[in-house]
Amino acid sequence: MPGSWAITPAPFGSIHTFTAPEQGWCVTSHAIELPSQLIVVDAQYTLPLAGEVVGYSNDLKKPISRLYITHYHPDHLLGAAAFDAPAHALRVVADKIATAGDRIAREEHEKVGNDIPDRARKIDVPIDEGEETVDGVRLVYRHLRHSETEDALTIGLPDATAIIVQDLVYNRAHVFLGERRFESWRAALTGYRTLPFTTVLPGHGVPGGPELYDRMGDYLDYAETALEASADKTDFKRRLLECFPDHGARKIVDHQMRFLFPA
Length: 263
Fold this sequence. Notes:
The chain is of the alpha/beta class. It is about 35% helix and about 25% strand.
C-alpha cells in the first residue's frame, strides 16, 4: 500500500509531506521545495518507502541537496540509504546514530527483512541550533529536549509561517511513549504553541495547525493515566485502542511495550 502526499503552499515553493501507510508507522518525510533545490526532512522506516519519497522528489525536477534526520529512532532513520544527499543532524543526534544506529538497524532488519538495511547510515554534517539561509529561505534549527526522545531537531520556516516539529506531535497516530517523558513533553507542547507558526508539520500523520498541540496533549494525558492503571501490556494496549480507535500507527503500540513493560 503506498503512502499519501499533502502539499503546503509557501512563498518560496511548497512543502510536500509524505505520510507512510500503516506498515511504515504513518511516519512523515517533508520535501521542502526551494527555488532551485529540495531539502528532505526524515528518511522513512523502510527502503521502499524512502524510495517513494525519492521518486516523487525526482518528479519535481529539482535535486535533493540535503537530508535532515531529526532523531535516531528507526522510523525516521533507516531509509536514509536511499537518498543521495548529505545527511544533516544535530551533533548530539549524530553521536547517537554513530553509537546505536547499527544496533537499531540490525534489530529492525531481523524483524522486517531486506526492506530494512542491516547498518544505519551515519551523519555527514553535524549542525547546531541557530538560523541558516539556504537558497534564499530561512531555516531555524531548534534543539527539542526531553519529549518523545531525549534530543531531536525541529526546523522553523518563518517565511512560510510553518514549523516541522516531527515527533513532538503525532496527528491521529499512536505515540511512542517508551521514554516516559510525559511532564517535560507537555511543557514542550506548551512552549511550541506560543511560537508564531500557523502550520504544524508532525512526525506522524498529516499537517495541521496549532490545534495539533492540544490533541497531542490530550493523548499524553490519557496515556499516562492508562499506563499507571494498566495491569500489563495487554491491558494498556486495549485501553489505547479503545480510546483512540481511529488512530493509525498501531505497530508503534506494540513496538513500545518492551520499554514500558520490560521483562
